[in-house]
Amino acid sequence: MPCLTILTNVPRSKIPTDFVNKIMPLLSRVVGKEIDKFTCIISGDCQVSFGGESTKPGAVATLESIGNLNPQQNRVIVKELSDFLDKEINVKPDRFFLSLYDVPSSNIGRFGDTSEARLKLSIN
Fold first, then answer.
1. How confident is the model at residue 124 (pLDDT cuts 50, 70, 90)?
2. Which of 5, 24, 58, 72 is least buried, going by the fewest C-beta atoms within 10 A?
3. CATH number assigned to the domain comprising residue 76
4. What average pLDDT does the chain have?
5. Which ranges form a coiled coil (predicted)?
6. 3-state SS of 34-92?
7. Is 10 helix (H, G, I), strand (E, B) or coil?
8. Nearest-angstrom CA–CA distance, 124 and 112
9. CA angle 36, 75, 68 (to 5 degrees)
10. Active site residue 2
11. ∠ CA(109), CA(36), CA(66), 5° rounding?
């Protein structure tokens, strides 16, 4: 269950209402997982500063996934997400910071259980 969380100082009123729907196909393509596995959250009106500058649009984000993250793939993901944020909410690549985490399935919970437990049940 990959999850992208974006915090930005862009006003909520300037974030397209269909932002999360538009980013989902991109996430699915660059991470290599089905769209129905993704969660995306964007929160506007946050206080964000890059090098002491907080008046220009900026964003910080985390992408967590069970697998499909590695140094080569991460470069593609960062580039694609940077381009998308520039186009959709005017956050330039030099004002976007993304942390990527390849998370063990035992550290992800959904449906009242961890992914690891559900994977074991589906195998048996």
1. very low
2. 72
3. 3.30.429.10
4. 92
5. none
6. CHHHCEEEEECCCCCCECCECCCCCEEEEEEECCCCCHHHHHHHHHHHHHHHHHHHCCC
7. coil
8. 19
9. 40
10. yes
11. 45
Which listed residue (2, 25, 71, 93) is catalytic? 2
Cα angle: 50, vertex 28, 100; to 5 degrees: 35
Model confidence at 122, pLDDT cuts 50, 70, 90, reads very low
Tell me which residue range forms the domain holding 81: 3-123
Backbone angles phi, psi at 44, to 5 degrees: -95, 180
The strand order across the sheet containing 59-65 reads: 39-43, 3-8, 59-65, 96-102
Count other Cβ atoms within 10 Å, centred on residue 23.
Answer: 21
In degrees and rounded to multiples of 5, residue 80 shows phi and psi of -65, -45
